[in-house]
């Protein structure tokens, strides 16, 4: 995921659990289309935040992922656990973003519909969090 320059830390504020330390942000047309294509795996702590997005697909991917569909206030409005390659979600009309995470992350962080996710910017050069 070298092409994304912006990264955030994702925390489930409702549960007090860290979802990812280096979540890349895909906010341009090209980065949203490419997504995780070409990646061989997603390491624990990594992920992709696609903004804006109302649905995603895993066509061409090589590994399963967990997804959290978020509204404009960063509340989880839908989840999908262990979404395998060559699948597609339905359209979520109230969605503002989709958070893609390593498979098993939603269970390990107890993330469910209604939870609020907080994002803090990460300085990629220093790997430090900026509030």
What does this structure look like?
The protein has a single domain, classed as Sandwich (Jelly Rolls), CATH 2.60.120. 8% of the residues lie in helices and 39% in strands. It contains 2 helices and 8 strands; from the N terminus they run ββαββββαββ. The longest helix is centred in the N-terminal third of the chain and has 6 residues. It is globular. The protein starts with 6 loop residues before the first strand and ends with a strand. 34% of the residues are buried.
Give the structural class: mainly beta
Tell me the number of structural domains.
1
In CATH, the topology is named Jelly Rolls
In terms of per-residue confidence, which ranges show pLDDT below 50 for 5 or more consecutive residues? none
Q: Would you spell out the secondary-structure blueprint of this structure?
A:
Layout: E1 7-12, E2 17-26, H1 29-34, E3 46-50, E4 65-70, E5 76-83, E6 97-102, H2 105-108, E7 117-123, E8 128-130
Parallel strand pairs: 2-3
Antiparallel strand pairs: 1-2, 1-7, 3-6, 4-5, 4-6, 7-8
List keywords for this structure.
single chain, about 130 residues, mainly beta, Jelly Rolls, 8-stranded mixed sheet, 2 helices, 8 strands, globular
């Amino acid at each position: 995921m070298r092409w994304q320059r912006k990264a955030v830390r994702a925390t489930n504020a409702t549960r007090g659990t860290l979802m990812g330390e280096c979540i890349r942000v895909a906010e341009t047309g090209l980065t949203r289309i490419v997504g995780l294509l070409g990646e061989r795996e997603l390491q624990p702590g990594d992920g992709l935040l696609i903004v804006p997005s109302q649905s995603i697909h895993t066509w061409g991917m090589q590994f399963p992922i967990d997804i959290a569909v978020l509204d404009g206030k960063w509340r989880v409005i839908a989840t999908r656990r262990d979404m395998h390659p060559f699948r597609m979600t339905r359209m979520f009309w109230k969605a503002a973003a989709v958070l893609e995470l390593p498979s098993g992350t939603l269970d390990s962080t107890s993330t469910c519909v209604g939870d609020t996710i907080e994002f803090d910017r990460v300085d990629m050069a220093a790997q430090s969090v900026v509030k």
